[in-house]
Amino acid sequence: MRIIVAGHTAISPDEFVELALGTPPELWLGVEGESETERAARMDAARDILAEEPGLTDRVSRVAAQAIEAAPELFNVVPLARPAVRRRVSRKGAAA
Known about the structure:
mainly alpha; two-stranded antiparallel ribbon; 4 helices; elongated
């Protein structure tokens, strides 16, 4: 199955996320073994991107929801049962 985002074909899940968000996931998640200086620089870059593109958080949420919906087995997500609708008995009217 081919996944095309914004006219580009995503070859891997990481590439799909990067194309969908417009930024690499490592910018937001970090990388293993990064120093405090590297983390601070990454966080500064992330803040700058969010300041320039305020709609990014909505786009990230939408991509995450679509990913969970497309492959819930990867996230161990199970649908919740809907609670039964309770009908209230009307107490209006004449008392016997």
